[in-house]
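--- STAGE predict ---
source: upstream dedup step, 1 unique chain passed
mode: sequence only
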Amino acid sequence: MRSLQRREVLCVLGGLAFARRGAAATALRAARDAVDHIVIGTRDLERGIAGIEAMTGVRPAIGGSHPGRGTRNALFSLGPRQYAELIAPDPEQAGTKDAYGLADFPEPRMLMWAASATDIDAMAAARNATPAPGSRVRPDGRVLSWRTLAIAARPGIVPFFIQWDAGTIHPASDSPAGCTLTALSFEAPDPAAVEVELAAAGISARVTRGPAPRLAATLQTPKGRVTL
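--- STAGE serialize ---
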């Protein structure tokens, strides 16, 4: 068995320190159960919608624009309080560059995932952080609002957390249905360190070794099992 690299050791120690402050004192949630939504990046929303429909048999519905972030989205449900979000550059915000470089994506790909939170203020306080507010207007005019907390420098295989504001409709409740999330899988060059980082955030997951960080979601769809 190889020895841990210095960066992995530091990550492991950091994760254990946080766990001792209480985050891992409660039972860990399986990653699949912790999902609020998965995010799929694409350079063109309409093409991304068509691609998902061809693959799954479910056509994502336009969700709305993210003002100031240069993006818009389309959604489809993955079951109760879980959904998938297609995110793409918003032509109406041509002067605003999106943070993910979506215009350069050669094809749609898994970008990141959000884990659900029930007390995001406590999570933020444990990290000396402040949750970030967010909102968007649906095509029907209703405003959705939420708060998020990033626990990694760059969300990807380690999720960010989201808590929807009281009175906000959860997108899974009325997005096109027919798909369910059956598994979430992870690869990373340093799997042990990532597993500890996830555990420190209350999430149980097995990470396999791979050349680069990789997130994959397996869905049961009207056209059978699909992996994104």
